[in-house]
Prior knowledge:
The protein is mainly alpha-helical. It has one domain (6-131). It contains seven helices and no strands. The protein has helices at residues 6-31, 33-37, 45-68, 71-95, 99-103, 105-123, 126-131. Helix 1 runs antiparallel to helix 3 (45-68).
Amino acid sequence: MNKRPVALRLLILETLILAGRSWGRIGVVANNPQLYHDLHTTPPLWLYVSINAIWGIIFSLLSIALWRRYFWSWQVFWPVLLAYILLSMGWFVMFAVNPYDHKRLPFLVVLVVLGLILNLVLLRRPKVRRAFQKSTDVGEIDL
């Protein structure tokens, strides 16, 4: 049985954390919707819950697919992560009204770019690539 490379395990952990973050946001809002309405600068509650539910589903499915080493999950990981980050940054820019939030935006952009580069490096590692290639060996089972 092939073990998953450490880099692949880190990518799976990342998708699980992002899925948990999305589901957790829904749970917090469901538990106390008045707190969300008191913010005054946020979009409608249904939009917030819908967007987080969509990302929760996407990252949950992606983490399962990465764990099972479906080739398509390796191909879509980078575009999905990039779309998530662009949407998150756009959401931050549109709905952050506190001057402190706007002052920390350059730091967040640098941190996001470094994170994207790290993800790309992990995703392109030879061991991770090999983990998604189908084996042609007769006696090996790919789980």
